Amino acid sequence: MYFRQVFLVACLTAIVASIGFTLYQFYFVTPIIFAAEFYEIAESVDAYAQPEPWGPTDGIERSSYTLLANFLMSLAFSLLLACAMIFRGESSVFKGFAWGVAAYLAFFVAPSLGLAPEIPGMEAAELVARQNWWFLSVVMTAIGLAVFAFGALYYKGAGLIFIILPHLIGAPVAESHGFSHPDPNAVMKLTELWHQFILHSSIANALLWLIIGTTTGFLCHKYIDVMTTSLEPNLN
Amino acid sequence: MNTNNIETSHGAAIGSTKNLQLLAAAALGMVILFAVAFAPMDMAHNAAHDTRHSVAFPCH
Predict the structure, then answer these.
(1) For chain B, what are the domain ranges?
(2) Annotated domain spans of chain A
(3) What whole-number percentage of chain A has pLDDT above 70?
(4) Segment 105-124 of chain A within 8 Å of chain B by CB
(5) What is the ipTM of this complex?
């Protein structure tokens, strides 16, 4: 029963969250990606002609795939959040909000401190190394926050060590970070776009986790706490 | 579902599989997250491209 209910809660949350996130993204975030791609495409005209793999055509098709990807991502995040929240006991909108804030710190803020959000056309270290560090920082920050929030007073300091450790190890950095575009004016424009992108992606992700946290908390309380309390008298 | 009629053994069984079910749901979440965020195939990358950038997953 829990699996089915959690999946239902996550699906409903993902519908709300992906609509909210996609609207903000559509108006404030993807225009910056498109603007950066304009320079990226202009830059790669002279590059070796390679057969392009499939990709959605710009416009409604590309936006639809983004909405689908946003839905699946929100579904995954909500599944994880709901499982953690139910494992810890009863849920509420406020608890959901607190879990959402913690998840924003673990999934966005902590990895972004080492690997800032990037727009197309930026020089970066090897992809697999960056993905590994991203995963490491997310897991360590999540463990650190959990120890800090739920651990005994004596162990709370250990939580801080978990949070800081990935940053002591250090995120992989490219040999030449920045933009490789030959035109200095374009590089200036791209840098400006990048700063806007960091601001708007930070707001977009805060909005995403605000919706996922509170909605998951509300729905878990409505659909799952009821089930748990009705079973408890029979457990003895 | 009429939970009032659940017998002790049934209730205990549901209670004891709680963590297992939560683990399964979390595992499903991880699989979906990795498909959207990290799947290396060009098609998956191109379809989820704007999402990956917006959520600051390492991309390209």
Answers:
(1) 3-54
(2) 2-44+58-124+174-234
(3) 92
(4) 107-108, 111-112, 115-120, 124
(5) 0.90
